[in-house]
């Protein structure tokens, strides 16, 4: 009996060691595959990572700032948008705090698990790199950050383009169970280090297919998006904190969206199972006077990859409206 218990405990110890080594290997592997590709700037004690693509001589658009969603990084929007807009404007793609290669865990992080704190850091970054006003493009969770940016920094907001935004309290307030577990004291860090990262690596493609449905997963998305960067302990934990705190934040903050006066476009799929368009996109349309919704038929949660031409057209429209409003 003692020998049996010893063997069981030994097997458990070996399994846990292997999973911990897998987590370490995955974290190193994704950083080799997707190294930082941009520049760094310290804003209020937080080291922010971003890419800065200059405007060409024939630029016809104001600066554009792209804010990615949950589980993401700046490549999520850079990959489908850069080739289509390069040279037409100064293009800034930002890793939100704790994601990609932006720092997330410092004493000076200013509540960076909340959209308004992240908006403040992005506003500080724009000041640091010499951008006084820009059109802000936010996808999913980045939509809440873009909305907070427009509320807190109206002088820096020429316009906003929301892509499948998550901005309002939703029915049930459910959050994916593994984010809840990751936030538990003691158990959470163990769960992330021993189970969540190896499991995420194994189910990665099925997970991203689910986010794209009913659309087909683009063959180059796993490589070009660098979305496996979330499979690092700090990024996974920060992502869980962001998502698990979003409901309480938007439950109060959405009342301030009516303060947004800049031109706004809301692009949303009619088949999005990740973020309920009838709650979030319709909610924004009702809250923001100078806004319109563009509905994409048979489209899920990733409009920038499935209908990039529509996203570009709405960026153009909002930019033109911003010029007219400024006169």
Which ranges are low-confidence, i.e. pLDDT below 50, for 5 or more consecutive residues? none
> What structural class do helix, strand and pairing data support?
alpha/beta
Helix content bin: 40-55%
Radius of gyration: 20 Å
Form type: globular
So, CATH architecture?
A: 3-Layer(aba) Sandwich
The CATH topology is given as Rossmann fold
**Average pLDDT over all residues:** 91
Strand content: 5-15%
Spell the H/E element sequence.
Answer: HEEEHEHEHEHHHHEHEHH
CATH class: Alpha Beta
Oligomer: single chain
Question: Main sheet, how many strands, which sense, barrel?
Answer: 8 strands, mixed
Domain count, please report it: 1
Q: Cα distance, first to last residue?
A: 85 Å
Count up the helices: 11
Count of β-strands: 8
CATH-defined superfamily = Alpha/Beta hydrolase fold, catalytic domain
The spatial strand order of the largest sheet comes to 1-2-4-3-5-6-7-8
How would you sum up this structure, described in words?
The protein has 327 residues and is α/β, with parallel strands linked by helices. The protein is built from 11 helices and 8 strands. The protein has helices at 2-33, 75-85, 115-128, 141-152, 177-182, 187-212, 221-225, 233-253, 280-287, 303-306, 308-326; strands at 39-43, 46-53, 64-67, 91-94, 134-139, 157-163, 264-269, 291-296. An 8-stranded mixed sheet has the order 1-2-4-3-5-6-7-8, with helices on both faces. A hairpin with a 2-residue loop joins strand 1 (39-43) and strand 2 (46-53). Helix 1 (2-33) crosses helix 6 and helix 3 packs across helix 4. 47% of the residues are buried.
